[in-house]
Design brief:
Elements: E1 18-29, E2 32-43, E3 47-52, H1 58-65, E4 73-78, E5 81-82, H2 88-95, E6 98-101, H3 113-124, H4 129-142, H5 158-169, E7 176-180, H6 188-204, E8 208-212, H7 216-222, E9 225-230, E10 233-238, H8 240-245, H9 249-255, H10 272-276
Parallel strand pairs: 3-8, 3-9, 6-7, 7-8
Antiparallel strand pairs: 1-2, 1-4, 4-5, 9-10
Length: 280
């Protein structure tokens, strides 16, 4: 597998059981605060499900970990290093240790399946094409698509495209995998395959995974720990068993898909009679 020499600024963590930690993080876009005073620990080697209401800040957490955005306050650490202390070289080295699966795959439409997976290897290494070929085929084989190497993205199904994107995300042998809605838009069979693949790859390759998802059943099936984000805060967390047994009204509404509860269907508004006018 491809190996990378990290700068001195990116050294192994002094807490070997923790790979990612957000401490006292407040973050947003412009003047709009999305996350408020978040504390989150991602243990090494585990699958963490990050769930919650739409617009609650789940994807923002992934952007913080990848340093696409910076917190307004607080620290985001990867392997014991505050990402804010890294220069551009150190940050790029840290990002090479992360893999990102975007919500709909984000494949390059004019490149074949093979070339999509080869892209990060060609961009970030000086490996000969013969080695890149073997690595690409190994990654495609891991997701069950070695036989689809010559197809174009337009020739594969949505579920297959998601698996190609996963192979590409793993091309540089990351330690951390970030998944943004990996089950969105998939049929039940593809969803089950994707979930099992995420769990198996995490265990066999010694990865750490953070999954942003709304799909309770599939996420609970494979996650070691679940974190529920709502209204910009972490409102609950625990194992899938603990979350299912929770008596917290918001947790129960989310986990059991109940229409009534703390999260209301109607956005706050003035009385309907005042809006529409009262007619005699």
């Amino acid at each position: 597998m491809a190996q990378f020499q990290l700068p001195d600024t990116v050294m192994p963590s002094q807490q070997p059981d923790v790979l990612v930690e957000l401490s006292g993080v407040t973050c947003g876009y412009g003047d709009r605060v999305v996350l408020q005073d978040i504390d989150l620990v991602v243990p090494r080697g585990k699958v963490v499900g990050l769930m919650g209401t739409s617009g609650g800040g789940k994807t923002t957490v992934l952007r913080l970990i990848g340093r696409q955005i910076a917190p307004m306050k607080g620290t985001v650490s990867f392997d014991g290093i505050d990402l804010a202390t890294l220069d551009s070289t150190g940050l790029m080295a840290a990002r090479r240790r992360m893999g990102m699966l975007f919500q709909f795959g984000a494949l390059f439409t004019d490149l074949s399946v093979f070339d999509n997976v080869a892209f990060p290897l060609r961009e970030h290494t000086r490996l000969p094409e013969s080695i890149i070929r073997d690595l690409v085929l190994m990654k495609l084989n891991a997701v069950g698509l070695r036989g689809a190497r010559d197809l174009m993205p337009s020739e594969v199904s949505g579920g297959m495209a998601r698996r190609v994107a996963l192979a590409r995300a793993m091309a540089l042998d990351p330690e951390l995998m970030l998944y943004d809605e990996p089950f969105a838009g998939l049929d039940p069979i593809s969803m089950g395959v994707a979930a099992r693949l995420i769990r198996d790859l995490n265990d066999t390759m010694g990865l750490t995974s953070v999954i942003v998802s709304h799909d309770v059943e599939e996420t609970f099936l494979i996650a070691d720990h679940v974190v529920l984000v709502a209204n910009g805060r972490i409102v609950a967390q625990g194992t899938p068993v603990e979350m299912r047994a929770s008596e917290d009204p918001l947790v129960r509404q989310f986990v059991h898909a109940r229409p009534d509860g703390p999260v209301q269907f109607h956005h706050p508004a003035i009385e309907a009679g005042q809006d529409f006018g009262v007619r005699s």
